[in-house]
Design goal:
Blueprint (H helix, E strand, L loop, with lengths): L19 E3 L3 E2 L3 E6 L5 H14 L13 E5 L4 H11 L7 E3 L2 E3 L2 E3 L7 H11 L3 E5 L14 H18 L2 E7 L8 H4 L5 H5 L2 E7 L8 E9 L8 E13 L6 E12 L5 H5 L13 H13 L6 H10 L4 H13 L3 E5 L7 E5 L5 E4 L4 E6 L5 E2 L23 H4 L21
Helix pairs in contact: 1-2, 3-4, 8-10
Length: about 425
């Protein structure tokens, strides 16, 4: 069917107020991002919210009405992590589901946007109020370039429409990069399209008033459908799940979060600011911002110069500054230019080696990486000394709700339009 323009006369549209899965923070029928550094408990926080939905105890439309939730994860084991965390948070496990895809070869990971209709069918079948995707970038298909705003928006567009049509709230988990910027726009890994596409953004970070403790804050950093809400404070703790390991017979304990109340005076800028002993002497120079941006992008995979400069433009970094930053990194042997295809003149930039840690100083960049012998490699040493490891995506063991209910796809609709397909590489 050819594409055609369609007009909707607004006089015939029924207005409605925004409804909330979690009052003021997680809107129904929309995509919310939960962002933060790895290893700080973002997933634990998300599963605590999910558990409250299953008990009807999350302030919002689900208050007093237990509802189903669906968790899609590429990082946490179902039996050893997800199930115990939900149990520790007091979830009604009869209303909690894990979702993966199956094909002729067996179990496979969900891909976005290609599997959006299959996800919509399961949301409808369970009447789920909340879907958690952890992390979002692990489920983007190979045609989606996570560095390009347009590509990210096309991948997430069908997810928005699915949420709107079913009324469920979608919470996508996203990691922040290793930079020291206090702007969340610059810290979200990949394209600015992730933050721009979300209607609400929540930042999970160490409590700036107790940075060395296990206290965390949840800061409402962005909201397009309502006013920003107060930051909240949480405490990470270990709880008895009430579950028993079948092999050892021992009880299972795991991390959980306790709600402490409002975090007065905490902002995203304060939460993202580095500790005083790590803070730069002054504002980062433009070239340093360029090196940070390029390293952050290439840590997630190769990128074309066009994509890099487009991202830099979004963040207000001039093309000349990016060229100087690129040359700095190239001369230090930290990045290299590679031919994408022998059939054309397409070139991309990539890290010369997988970097385990990175610290950025003034204009230059000082990087510490691991060699085959475990010895630190100085910027002047040869990159050939390094071993590069591919990191395959992990997919959890899962079950489909209601015993793989057989539902006619045509009965629910198609959320994946032809023009949602990402641009080819």
């Amino acid at each position: 069917m050819p594409r055609a323009a369609q007009l909707t006369r607004l006089a015939g549209v029924q207005a409605r107020k925004q409804r909330w899965a979690w009052d003021g923070r997680v809107p129904e029928g929309q995509v919310t991002l939960l962002v933060g550094d790895g290893g700080l408990g973002k997933s634990t926080c998300a599963l605590d919210l999910a558990a409250r939905v299953t008990r009807g105890q999350l302030p919002g439309e689900c208050k007093g009405e237990p509802r189903a939730i669906i968790v899609i994860t590429a990082e946490d084991d179902l039996q050893a992590t997800m199930l115990p965390r939900l149990a520790a948070a007091g979830a009604d496990l009869e209303l909690a589901y894990s979702l993966t895809m199956t094909d002729d070869d067996g179990e496979a990971g969900l891909t976005l946007p290609g599997d959006i209709d299959a996800l919509a069918l399961q949301v409808a079948a369970t009447e789920a109020a909340l879907v958690i995707i952890d992390p979002v970038v692990a489920f983007l298909d190979d045609a989606t370039d996570s560095h390009v705003d347009k590509s990210v928006r096309r991948a997430l567009g069908p997810l928005h429409r699915m949420a709107e049509a079913t009324g469920c709230a979608v919470v996508g988990i996203v990691h922040v990069n290793k930079g020291m910027a206090s702007s969340l726009t610059r810290r979200i890994g990949g394209s600015v399209g992730f933050r721009n596409a979300a209607r609400s953004v929540l930042l999970w970070a160490p409590d700036p008033d107790a940075p060395d403790s296990t206290r965390r804050v949840l800061v409402h950093e962005k909201c397009n459908v309502g006013p920003l809400q107060d930051a909240l404070r949480f405490q990470l703790e270990t709880r008895d799940t009430g579950l028993v390991d079948p092999d050892s017979g021992e009880g299972i304990h795991i991390g959980a979060v306790a709600w402490l109340g409002v975090a007065e005076g905490v902002t995203a800028e304060r939460a993202l600011a580095p500790p005083p002993d790590q803070a730069p002497a002054g504002d980062e120079s433009p070239r340093q911002l360029g090196t940070d941006l390029m390293l952050d992008m290439l840590e997630q995979g190769s990128a074309s110069w066009k994509d890099i400069t487009a991202r830099a433009k979004d963040e207000g970094i001039a093309p000349m500054t990016m060229r100087r930053a690129r040359d700095d990194l190239k001369h230090q042997g930290l990045i290299r230019k590679v031919k994408q295809s022998m059939a054309n003149d397409s070139w991309r930039w990539e890290l010369a080696a997988e970097m385990s840690t990175a610290t950025r100083d003034t204009v230059g960049v000082s990087v510490s990486v691991e060699t085959q012998a475990g010895k630190a490699l100085a910027p002047g040493d040869s990159p050939e000394m390094l071993t590069v490891h591919e990191s395959p995506r992990a997919v959890t063991v899962s079950g489909s709700p209601n015993g793989h209910r057989d539902t006619d796809p045509d009965s629910f609709g198609d959320f994946l339009a032809a023009d949602d397909l990402p641009d080819p590489m």
